[in-house]
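note to self — DONT lose this again. spent like an hour looking for the file last time. sequence + predicted structure for the chain T wanted, 126 res
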Amino acid sequence: MIAKDTPNFIGNRIGTFSVLNVIRLMQEMDLTIEEVDALTGQAVGWPRSATFRTIDLVGLDILGHVVGNMTRPARVEAGDSPAALDERSDLKLPDFYRQMLERKWLGDKTKGGFYKKTKGQRRPGR
């Protein structure tokens, strides 16, 4: 794959789109975090940590930074179409996620994000 030098690795770009799509579907289908993790973990060949546990491991702030990098207006170079930037319009963190960031619920590094760590055990978050 040939690509211009831009922030975020290709894996981050694909993973971020996937995570935001999963969150969108969770809200549309009124699923819980636990239900989503059951559906997006080993059942589909992904790691046992699935979606939300993985976000807790990586850090909610990190995903927020990656989304921010992806939604910043990219510089349009000679020959590029400004319409190419439109594909980023669906990359938006939901309100509940932004509230978690404001409250510093960042995942494992703060002992709570989507899941809250209590004495060596994980239980659904705050």
